[in-house]
Write a structure and sequence with these properties.
single chain; 43 helices
């Protein structure tokens, strides 16, 4: 809530400042017009008759009939509302005045500025002067030629008497007696400024600062030509840091007293304080127009224009000053102008001004050293090296006292790419107070680097980092130099954090230590990556990449519309209350925008609706006899904090995609599969538009999911690979191995497999996988149906023939099948076909023998077991997916491809069951002993 109030206050202050400076701009134009008109009036001879209506500046503050101004002042928020109202009223009044001026403008005529009538016959100042208490305000009356103007609003004797009594009580310190008298005067003459001013003095003496300010504000707007009142309000707001209101008041004071230079200086300094350099520059330029010999205002205004990016205008006003002072130019102005011309690469013009200054004002003495150096720099840029060196010789003799000039000169040579000369002057600074400056060593290192002296450059960078250890650019440049010199260990030591110190240790301030910077870690991880140090590479960059990807993913999500809280709605409804206060003042123009009024009305309706719903719930709960508690919370929901990415350019540089892929591979090599899959899934969410990168990431995710015992995070990757490569047995093998690790996997993937079967009628892999699942469920008839569908597509495939044969054999052993012999014969036919396709291999013979053994044809089983025993099978590599490392196979014993032991064991069971125990013992001894 505090933050919301602060934001609302900032918005209100910004709005007030915008209105104030807009009004001030118009006032400044009116001041210039008034100065011109006064000059025209001074040139005229004779007496001037002026009409009272033209002389008087009407006050824009009026009150409706029946409205007591004292009731408004009692309101604590009246000061803020009155200030905002008056700013808008003054702006509208000025706009109306300009419109009338345009309508009434006639050739040869002049628009007269209206002036204020004295609303009182005997002013407060005259009364105090008569009483000789010395507390009067200085008169701001304008002296005019001709007769003195009259007054349109004469005070009645009763009002004059009451004012005299109130002033008498105030002078004696009887403040409590003065208040009711002044209140009576206000009720009878509500537009009399003296009563409000005196009442403000009384409340100020009593310590009621808020009320005093209210009365001062009304008095100032009733007497807008009284500069002292506006100065009083300016001091009050300025002391309390309310800069927009202070600017408004001092602008009104300047309008009332346009020849007061001190006020204009104060206003310009306020603009500088708030960072409004454009208006500050315009204010200083206006001061120079009033006081052409004010050099400090001229230079300050030129610097302000420079700060707001108007360098050309700075050069213009400085040049105009020099044109108006051709015989006695100010050297400081010429020096500033030359500096700005040099920054604008106008070295020829700058040189002309310096040489002209020497001819005009310095013919009997030398130029200051600063201007000599600037002259030499201009000659250097124009190619006059010899002339430049002659001018720089004076600086070499006084190098100890002019370190800033030497630095400026060396920087100029750096920009000219004359690194030898730049290095010469940088070396002159050794032994001075700037010798321990880290930036000086960085500049020297860059000079050495440009001169191909890497050894000296490295030395200077090390010296710079002693003073500027948090300079990331210098550290990275030094690391690159060390790598080019094949000093990888030194580069790693340079970029590695201090011993036993982490990023969370040195958090005494908001700045992070240099070793936690993303650029430093990125550079360090590239070194580890090039050296093949996977563990160090992962430890350095994994957390940063993960955080950066998470932030990128969050920024891509659609933000839910924030629900307005009750506190926000109440804040918006306050606009309606302010609008009602504005309506109490007759003739006022509301400054509240129509959009704010509409939003306030909607907020009011929403609050009424919430209150109605809340009351209905409470009544319903009370009727049911239950305790009712409101579930509405007035607290603001926590705002989403925008966190900056530690690697903001991670997804902008294509090389960083390779970094992410290498990171995932390194994590997989360290068996950190879950972390690797997490990085892959995050990267896929932000790289979907880059097909090549996404394809490689999914392939890598499928490989990792193939190896990890918990493949949940890599399931989408293997499905994508199988979907993109439906005719690849390697892709389906990977998919099948991953999904079989889940419990009840077929129910989860039935839809995917069925979709593939319906879409790709000529793809056998989904049929085989379905058949395997049905075999595991002992649904051999359904399994045989799936295998036969695959057989129609690939009749010469050995695996499919084996699967069909085993399914038919298992089906024949069921109890419900009637034509068992036909099923057995068909199954054996497929197994013989598998034997043919495998070219009588040991594995095919064993499968056939096992089938005969399974159905009870032990004689035929014995024959084929003996054929298996007669073949010595050599070990061969086990088939693996292409991405797996073939050398990282399990530690298998020799003969892991030989099936003779299995065949011997099954054969001994046949012999033993038939009673040939000796034969069984002999088979075990010959083939199953070690």
């Amino acid at each position: 809530m505090d933050k919301e109030n602060d934001d609302a206050g900032d918005h209100e202050e910004a709005s007030q400042y915008a209105l104030s400076v807009t009004l001030e701009d118009d006032m400044m134009e009116d001041d210039e017009e008034e100065d011109e008109e006064d000059n025209e009036d001074d040139e005229q001879d004779g007496e001037v008759e002026e009409d009272d209506n033209e002389d008087e500046e009407e006050s824009t503050l009026t009150f409706k009939d029946g409205v007591n101004p004292l009731d408004l002042v009692e309101d604590g928020a009246f000061t803020d509302q009155l200030y905002q109202k008056f700013v808008g009223m003054d702006y509208e009044a000025l706009a109306e005045k300009k419109r009338k001026a345009l309508v009434d403008n006639r050739p040869g005529g002049s628009v007269k500025k209206v002036r204020q009538d004295d609303l009182s016959g005997a002013s407060m100042e005259e009364i105090l002067e008569a009483m000789n208490y010395g507390m009067q305000r200085r008169s701001r009356k304008r002296k005019k030629k001709g007769r003195q103007k009259g007054s349109r609003n004469k005070l009645t004797p009763e009002i004059t008497r009451l004012l005299g009594d109130a002033t008498y009580h105030y002078a004696l310190g009887n403040f409590e007696e003065a208040i009711p008298i002044l209140s009576e005067v206000i009720m009878k003459a509500p537009h009399l400024p003296d009563a409000y001013h005196t009442l403000g003095l009384v409340h100020h003496a009593l310590g009621n600062e808020k009320k005093a300010l209210n009365f001062y504000t009304i008095a100032a707007h009733l007497a807008p030509r009284d500069s002292s009142l506006w100065e009083l309000l300016f001091d009050w707001f300025n002391r309390r840091g309310q800069t927009p209101r202070a600017i408004y008041c001092i602008s009104r004071a300047i309008t009332a007293d346009p020849k007061n230079i001190n006020l204009k200086y104060c206003r310009a300094s306020l603009y500088v304080k708030v960072g409004d350099y454009r208006r500050a520059a315009a204010s200083y330029e206006h001061i120079v127009q009033t006081c052409p010999d004010d050099v400090e205002a001229l230079k300050t205004g030129a610097n302000m224009y420079k700060l707001c990016g108007q360098l050309e205008h700075s050069v213009h006003i400085l040049g105009e000053y020099l044109k108006s002072h051709p015989t006695e130019p100010e050297l400081s102005v010429i020096d500033l102008l030359a500096s700005m011309l040099m920054q604008n690469n106008a070295h020829s013009d700058a040189l002309q001004h310096i040489e002209r200054a020497q001819l005009v004002s310095c013919s009997k003495k030398e130029l200051p050293l600063e201007m000599k150096v600037k002259e030499g720099i201009c000659h250097a840029y124009l190619g006059n090296s010899e002339k430049a060196e002659m001018l720089f010789s004076a600086l070499e003799q006084k190098s100890a006292d002019h370190a800033e000039l030497i630095t400026e000169l060396a920087d100029s040579f750096m920009s000219l790419e004359q690194y030898s000369s730049a290095l010469k002057y940088y070396l002159m600074l050794k032994g001075t107070t700037d010798s321990n400056n880290g930036f000086l060593h960085i500049k020297m290192a860059r000079c050495y680097l440009s001169l191909n002296d890497r050894v000296q450059a490295i030395s200077c960078f090390y010296l710079a980092l002693k003073a500027l250890e948090n300079n990331i650019d210098a550290r990275l440049t030094l690391a690159s130099l060390l790598l080019e010199e094949a000093r990888e260990e030194d580069a790693i030591l340079l970029l590695s954090p201090l011993d036993n110190i982490s990023c969370s240790d040195l958090q005494t301030d908001k700045s992070e230590p240099w070793w936690c910077n993303g650029k430093v870690k990125l550079k360090l991880c590239h070194i580890y990556r090039a050296k093949g140090m996977h563990k160090e590479f992962v430890d350095t960059i994994y957390s940063l990449v993960r955080e950066a990807l998470c932030i990128e993913v969050l920024q891509q999500k659609v933000r839910v519309k924030k629900r307005l809280t009750k506190s926000v709605l109440l804040e918006r409804v306050k606009v309606l209350n302010k609008h009602q206060m504005d309506n109490l003042l007759c003739g006022s123009i509301s400054v509240t925008p129509a959009s704010d009024m509409s939003r306030a009305n909607r907020a009011k309706k929403l609050l009424e609706k919430k209150a109605k719903v809340k009351e209905e719930k409470r009544a319903k709960a009370m009727a049911a006899g239950a305790d009712w508690q409101s579930d509405d919370s007035d607290e603001d929901p926590p705002e989403e904090i925008h966190k900056e990415s530690p690697l903001p350019d991670l997804l902008k540089d294509k090389d960083n995609y390779d970094l992410i892929i290498d990171l995932c591979k390194s994590l997989a090599s360290l068996h950190r599969y879950c972390e690797a899959l997490e990085i892959i899934n995050l990267a896929l969410k932000v790289t979907r538009n880059i097909s090549s990168v996404a394809e490689e990431l999914r392939s890598l995710g499928a490989q990792i999911a193939y190896n990890t015992p918990d493949p949940e995070h890599g399931l989408d990757c293997v499905k994508y690979i199988a979907d993109q490569h439906p005719y690849s047995y390697a892709a389906w093998n990977c998919y099948y191995k991953v999904i079989t690790r889940f419990d009840d996997w077929y129910a989860r993937h039935f839809k995917f497999l069925r979709g593939k079967r319906d879409k790709l009628k000529d793809c056998a892999a989904p049929m085989i996988i379905s058949g395997h699942h049905l075999t595991r469920k002992s649904r051999h008839q359904d399994a045989a149906r799936e295998y036969l569908e695959a057989y129609k597509l690939l009749p010469e495939n050995a695996l499919i023939n084996l699967c069909v044969g085993t399914a038919l054999i298992n089906l024949a052993l069921g109890l419900r099948l009637q034509n068992k012999h036909q099923s057995v014969a068909q199954g054996l036919a497929f197994l013989y076909n598998n034997l043919r396709l495998c070219e009588n291999s040991q594995e095919a013979l064993y499968n056939l023998a096992r089938a005969f053994h399974h159905i009870g044809l032990v004689t035929l089983a014995t024959v084929y077991y003996q054929h298996v025993l007669a073949i010595r099978q050599k070990d061969c590599p086990l088939p693996k997916p292409p991405h797996e490392n073939q050398e990282s196979a399990e530690n298998l014993l020799p003969g892991y491809c030989d099936l003779r032991r299995e065949a011997a064991f099954n054969l001994h069971l046949i012999y033993k069951k038939s009673g040939a125990v000796d034969l069984a013992r002999m088979v075990l001894r010959d083939h199953c002993t070690f």
